[in-house]
Amino acid sequence: MLPMSTAIRLIVGLGNPGPEYETTRHNAGFWLADHLADDLHASFNLEKSFFGLVAKARRAGENVMLAKPITYMNRSGQSVGALARFYKLTPEQVLVLHDELDLLPGQVKLKQGGGHAGHNGLKDIQAALGSPNFWRMRIGIGHPRSLGLAQQVADFVLHPPRREEQTAIDEVIRRCRVVVPAMLDGDIERATRELHSGNSA
Fold this sequence. Notes:
seven-stranded mixed sheet; Rossmann fold
């Protein structure tokens, strides 16, 4: 078992608030966050001082928080920064759930640090935390080119997935739910191994 200091204490799902965005690809992080809150028997409540919906849970005697920023995607760091400062969390204790254009539906990757690859939510969180060293759970939604679509990326992410894509994304969300408890226990190596073993080609 790794030291508890490496355990995830804040899980942040990224998306855009509002019913018109609820089913769109860019909200994959919100979808997973909702399921994880259910798994932890926690409910989201609006906390304006944290610029988001926050759910609080206990696991093995430790506090765990989930958040869904209510700012738009490109200001997600406002919420994450406020929570991390208030609860004195390091970037290494933060897990961000987000959609990923570079992975196909049905694929998922867990990584720490790295760039933001033009993802405005990640870019803003990195600026707010002053570090890229937070964890990212990258939920594949595909790229319009890789899926044979003529849409522009900005339009693509703001539309719902097609049925077969949604089925593949739902399966990824199920797999993520299985490994998150290991991350909360500080065993990120096991979570990574189990998550990546299920990726389709």
